[in-house]
Amino acid sequence: MIFKIPLATIESLTTFARIFGSHQMKFVSMSMIKLLAFTLLVVFSTSISFASGDNSTEKEFNVGEMIMHHIKDAHEWHLWGPEHGGTSIYLPVILLDEGMKVFSSKTLYHGELKSAIDHKTHKTVTYYKGSGSAEGYGMFHEKIYKLNNGELNFEDGHVHGNIKVFDFSITKNVLSLFFGAAIILALMLSISRFYKTNGAVSPKGLAKFIEPLVIVVRDDIAKENIGHGKHHKYVPYLLTIFFFIWINNLLGLVPILPGGANLTGNITITFFLALCTLLMTLFSSNKNYWKHIFATPGVPIALMPIMIPIEIVGIFTKPFALMIRLFANITAGHIIILALISIIFINKNLAWGALSVPMALFISCLEMLVAALQAYLFALLSALFIGAAVEEAHH
Amino acid sequence: MDLVTPDLGLLFWTGLVFSLLLFVLTKFAWKPILGAVNAREQKISEALELAEKTKVEMKALQSENENLLKEARAQRDSMLKDAKNASDKLIEESKDKAKLEADKIVIAAKEAIKNEKLQAMSELKTHVAGLSLEIAEKIIRGELSSDEKQKALAEKMAEDINMN
């Protein structure tokens, strides 16, 4: 049942993305195919989780749960083995609750697995009750709450009545973010050192590989869309955003430790990046930009009451489309790969690997293309929006 | 729903990491990299410009050289011509002079010969006159060696005079 909500949300958001991202039609069509696959898979995995049934005593392999568990954030880095009692790296939990509290997530995962009855649906839900230094906290779906009288209360499948504490934990995504940042820093600083020691020479080694990308961002993204003379101060931002998204996208495709987190497919990340572009657009906007919003040239005054709200909404829908596009593309990629691998486990037969492995391999290769494409698109559209904000009136 | 709900903690860390990344990369990576790339591009475009300029200059220089060469050739030709003229003239002149000199010499020689001849003639004449006088004396002496002969001569002379 949990999948009903994200499904509906994804569909409506997809429509948004399609409408407001229409200036990139050729990319949208690709995203659409993927979103369709995403939707189908969510439906598919939901039906499987239904089929497995509640009354079966043996713990069934639940594809939907596994996939959802993977694409969401976690307080542990699960390596192998079953969900409870498998091998995991327990990450530090940092809570802001009457001062800062830091403890290992092991105290939550290896605390008490408690059951509670939902007050409305009367179904049994399970959550982790912290022990040791995590005493007094409970975790349900990776969200940490304060316990009331030693327990969590549920209504409609949600925690109700317990305070959700400010959670600044180094979660799986935060750690992945650190890895990504470390890789980008190591890569770029070593290239920067190459130029510092060798001066303005033709590039060699890593610099030879990265320099064309830097030039693409500078010339084809910034200069092309922002306009001559004005693009210089936006190039560092666009370069950072391009490499940040690209490297983290690729890192997400690596199935073992430094990678495997669904970082760029997390709405928080894409929300933050889109917010940066929005703020960048607003803070660099000139009079002409606002004139186009509040007094669009060539529009009759009678239409202004309609046009002005539309234009104001338009300010936000553009970065909103950026947020959804990146989130949906990367999440869909992760879901497809996991679903294809799951074919083996659903059928409990290794022979299905002959089908699922080549398909997963193909999608993985496609995802590598998508990783670069989405990074390019995000930077390109950011440049386009900034370009519209700094554009001078044509007279 | 939590799939599409931004999480505050992750937002905080993302903001922190991304801001730091933006700052550090801008200061220590993008600026040096873009600086080097720009400098190189400028260097290349300058070099290309210089090459183009040099090419034009070379062309100008080449045409100048050609002109110079042509001029030099023309000068050489004219000099050769002049020299030839001069030598011709010199030869002509010297020929004329030589001829004149030769003529002079011939004339002088002729004069000298004539004088010599005249002198020789007069000498010869005197000599001949002397000889003839001697002969005449001898003859006369012979003629006048006897009375009869003196008489006969006188008669003959008288006869000649008479006849005149």
Question: Could you explain the architecture of this structure?
Answer:
The complex is a heterodimer of chains A (395) and B (164). Chain A has 395 residues and is an alpha+beta fold. Chain A has two domains: 83 residues, no CATH class; 219 residues, no CATH class. Helix content of chain A is 59%, strand content 11%. Chain A is built from eleven helices and eleven strands. Chain A has a four-stranded antiparallel beta sheet with strand order 5-6-7-8, with no helix packed on it. Chain A has a three-stranded antiparallel beta sheet with strand order 4-3-11. Chain A starts with a helix and ends in a 5-residue tail after the last helix. By secondary structure, chain B is an all-alpha fold. Chain B has one domain. Chain B is built from two helices and no strands. Chain B is rod-shaped, with a radius of gyration of 64 Å. The N and C termini of chain B lie far apart (192 Å). The mean pLDDT of chain B is 89. The chains are: A alpha+beta (395), B mainly alpha (164). At the A-B interface, helix 1, strand 11, helix 5, helix 6 and helix 7 of A face helix 1 of B.
Keywords:
heterodimer; A: 395 residues; alpha+beta; 2 domains; four-stranded antiparallel sheet; three-stranded antiparallel sheet; 11 helices; 11% strand; globular; disordered N terminus; B: 164 residues; mainly alpha; 2 helices; rod-shaped
